[in-house]
Design brief:
pyrophosphatase activity; globular; 3 helices; Nucleoside Triphosphate Pyrophosphohydrolase; 2 domains; 3-stranded antiparallel beta sheet; NUDIX_hydrolase-like_dom_sf; hydrolase; alpha+beta; 7-stranded mixed beta sheet; NUDIX hydrolase; NUDIX_hydrolase_CS
């Protein structure tokens, strides 16, 4: 009899100790029993989840440039942000798009949901594509400082080579856009 794939390497949590409770994340150290019966510890970052939007405007992609403290430099990224408790990811994507770029979308399509770093975090990111944009007003959070611009696919590819774009969600969005331009499908 075979073991179900989701239980094959299961680690059973014996205890979980909260280490840090922040505004965005919490950190726990879990004691786990491994499949062979041995004990180990796992440091886990808990995150409420996030959304990101590949927003297309007249054959250009909307991006924002902002400073990322963990990297000690500015990054160019697609609009994104964390989910509020109980918030629908599609509604969060629309909210983040308007807050960061000033644009609203008539059409929003879910492309993928993926875990950003499953080795230590439970953060899931929901990636959407937005087309048929309508200009509105930017509504930045009081601790947000960024600039929005619309770039071509060629510029996005150049920014990846220069590492001005180097976060996974934006790189994935650029490749999804490139595939769309080649095939007509996301």
């Amino acid at each position: 009899m075979s073991t179900p794939i989701d239980k094959k390497f299961e680690e059973i949590t014996i205890s979980s100790q909260p280490i840090f409770e922040g505004r965005v994340i919490s950190v726990h150290v879990d004691t786990v029993q491994l499949p062979n019966g041995a004990m180990s510890t796992r440091e886990i970052v808990r995150h409420p989840g996030a959304v990101a939007v590949l927003a297309l405007l007249d054959d250009r992609m909307l991006v924002v440039e902002q400073y990322r403290k963990p990297l000690e430099r500015s990054q160019i990224e697609i609009p994104a942000g964390k989910l509020e408790p109980g918030e629908d990811p599609a509604e969060a994507a629309k909210r983040e798009l308007e807050e960061e770029t000033g644009y609203r979308c008539a059409n929003l399509k879910h492309l993928s949901s993926f875990y950003t770093s499953p080795g230590f975090s439970d953060e899931i990111l929901h990636l959407y594509v937005a087309e048929h944009l309508v200009e509105g007003n930017i509504h930045l959070d009081e601790d947000e400082f960024l600039e929005c611009e619309a770039i071509t696919l060629e510029q996005a590819q150049q920014y990846i080579r220069e590492q001005r774009i180097s976060d996974a969600k934006t790189v994935a969005a650029v490749y999804a856009w490139q595939l769309y331009k080649l095939t007509g499908r996301f």
